[in-house]
Amino acid sequence: MDRGGKAAGAWRGAAAPARLLRFGLPLLLALGIAAKPPEISPPAPQERAYRVKGVGLSIRPFKDTTYLKFESGVSVSGEGFSLSAGVVELEIASGAFATVEDLKLPEGGLSKEELGRDPGEVAQRMSRELELPQASFNRSAIKRLSASGGVRVTTPEVTLSTDALLSIDGGQSWSTSGRAQLSRSSGSGARAENYSLAADHLLYDTQGKRAAAEGNIEASFKRGGQDPVRLSAEKLELHIEQGRLKVSGGLKASYGQISLVCREMEALLEEATLRADGAKPGEPGPLLTDAQRGLSLQAGEITVDLDDETVEAVGGVKLDDSTRRISLEASRIEGSLKKQTFLLSGKVSAHDSGHDLALTAERISADIAAGSYEASGGPVVRQGESTFTGERITVTQEKVPGQKELRTVVEVHGEQEARIDMDKPPKLPEDPR
To answer: pTM surpassing 0.85?
Structure first.
């Protein structure tokens, strides 16, 4: 595309004056766009009008298409939309020009002397007298719209900053080139919502209020006075109004002392819930760690509520407490990271090295902070060299007067059986009396 001269609207070429008169007139016309859907769930077409302003303008007319290039401090504005950039280029169907509004030509036209001069010099003089470049467009004929150089887009929902943007549907959706950042700030107090998203490539749908990002994604989502959820990934799709997020590819997410590593994750930002899954056969599933409490949880699928710090996990569940040397395995688990209480089901096994305990059952309720368990569904409990079975077995830790260490108490309910190895009798606490 030709560059204009330093004066606004400069046109270069042998027939510049005639072309400027022919094609400079329609700059303030009603235009439009033949909508082409974005790659993420196409929205229905919507009419939208824009006003474009810039310091410099160049025009290249062809039989079916006219190219406009606005330069230096360009702004594009419309209802609920504004864009600023160093350069804005438009590719417009030539047949769309229909009417002329508020365009002032030089008084007296061109003299014979001027017609004999260098056409570029004459065009520059005319461009200074024309009230250009400023134009209004709607959506019937713009084939392509691009912006570059410190691009910033603002809508009521988000702010988008990048090096370059391209739209093939009249600003309904934008594709970025170069590192892009999308940010949002809304509400106040407990209902405040702030987030930022940076990626190598980003597609933003202004009508559907969605964003899709790829490549070296770094994002932060914060609600009210809560800690922010921070994440890194390779792919991300965000539904802005719904507050729904889908992330995949080398995902790492963190919230305070809680972190989550997985292949795929979905999140409801308003409800502060994260659901991680997507492990391939033979690969480890999502891994959640709580550094503050020394807990780690791995399973085929993990759901965590960040507000009350509760978790649910299914499929090859394994929970480890590195501080107390406790390991729990099951088909399913639900419970509270904060309280460290969990309900496990489906071929449950528990190993508590700190209390020399091993339990198996169909269901186990565990309070790992207190070292207490309740097992049912064919429970078997081994404590030291002793083995207990029954309909339901509880294990608790009791204080012994005069001693620092707790005593493990096993209670068997229903039909029961106990086997005690007398060659290696369990150590009983001394009677303080």
So the answer is: no
